[in-house]
Amino acid sequence: MNQELALLGNEKSLNASAKSVTKISLSLGTKEKDYKSLLGELSELDSTQVDNSSYFHRIIVPTEKEVETTLISGTSYTDKKTIYGYGLVTVLIDGNSYHMYRFSNRDNKKFYLILESLQKVSFETFSLDTDSAIKALSLITGNWYGDERYIVRSSEQLFNTIDSIHFRTASYSIISGHKIIDPHGFVEYMKAMGRSEFKNSTSVVPAISFSRICAMMKHVDELERSLFLILEGNKSKSPMSRITSYLVALETLASSISSKYPEHFKTIKNSKLSGKVRNSLIKKLEDYKDDLPPNEYELMTRKLQNINSPSNMDKILKSFELFGIKLPPKMKKIIKTRNVFLHGKTPFEENEVKEKQKELGIDSLRMHMLVSVLFLKFCGYSGHIKNLAGWRLYDDNRTDPNFELTEGIYFTI
């Protein structure tokens, strides 16, 4: 059990600390009076043997505040008490359709993210698809809701009758507010910059693009790993920890992209020529075989065998190049600090680090944007993205009459 569990009774209670036990047994006693005090029934906390036949499914995720499903192209809807102007999103994953929307009970300040299937699907398919959609939404909003989830199953599409309810937990929530899509802010910014072509733009994520992100999140393992590195970086208070998490996420993405598009990443594009160069160098190395320790010879041989493979840093730069993204010098510079941060250092002198926390914080936001850009482009997204570093600089200095913003707050990718 990953989380703390408390079973509270009238006279006795059972408590289990987080990460402490895998099984709990309850003894009811042998006397009749012991049974009279048992007021509830505990069947299963988590079931790994769920009936996998097809039903209509609905997942209900409690959230700390209203979820921004409005960042994605959708329609209006109502729950008979409240009319929502927009925010009902149709998500398509592997041929299965889902509705994703937010629900708010403002009387008791309860907020929920809800996804439901529009056709009967298996429990496993529904779980995988909606989990991918929730992850994709967390990339865009910066908020991952993972504490509690309730899956409701019904034979009827309108859920007039409930066949079963399943409770799940999905680790802990990470609420950072690192929103990378900001439709209203983007349009207002472009208007202020005199970019009239964006005057009538809605600038939300197209539903088809969001569905593609969800599908890739489901099928490409590296995307899930990269996402949680981004989310873990978002919650960290240390700028160095944030940068390191984003860098590892960036490398994970670049590795996956290079595997999918190997020809683009070859140092020598001509395969026959690269083979000749490699074999020639390995043959030359053999002349020194007797002069080298066996481990050094084997190491050099492996390096020469992979001579046509780019370095990790080159993989990152070539990944942006692949998608036609021209990085400003400032962004290239922070990528090239990769080895510095991964070795636990910073670009500053050791005696300056404490005074450079703000600069490191800004650099962490730049790195956040870089990894978000690559993530979205890998999934086929085209549109705008918010540069949190530019916004932070503007927000911190907006009252300074001499301040000049040197990088954009929004970019189109």
Task: Considering the chains and any ligands shown, give keywords for the structure.
13 strands; 413 residues; 14 helices; seven-stranded antiparallel β-sheet; two-stranded antiparallel ribbon; alpha+beta; 41% helix
Shape designation: globular
Residue windows where pLDDT falls under 50 for at least 5 positions: 34-39
Order of helices and strands: EEHEEEEEHEEEEHHHHHHHHHHHEHE
Radius of gyration: 26 Å
Number of extended strands:
13
- Through-space gap between termini: 43 Å
Question: Counting H and I runs of at least 4 residues, what is the number of helices?
Answer: 14
Q: Which structural class fits the helix and strand makeup?
A: alpha+beta
Overall pLDDT score: 86
User: Roughly what percent helix?
Assistant: 40-55%
Oligomer: single chain
Describe this structure in words.
With 413 residues, the protein is an alpha+beta fold. The chain has 14 helices and 13 strands. It has helices at residues 32-36, 123-141, 183-192, 207-219, 221-235, 239-260, 262-265, 271-286, 294-305, 312-322, 329-335, 338-342, 357-378, 388-397; strands at residues 5-8, 13-16, 56-63, 75-78, 83-93, 96-105, 110-117, 143-144, 149-154, 164-168, 174-175, 384-386, 410-412. The strands form four sheets. Strands 4-5-6-7-3-9-10 form a seven-stranded antiparallel β-sheet. β5 and β6 form a beta hairpin. The longest helix has 22 residues, at 239-260.
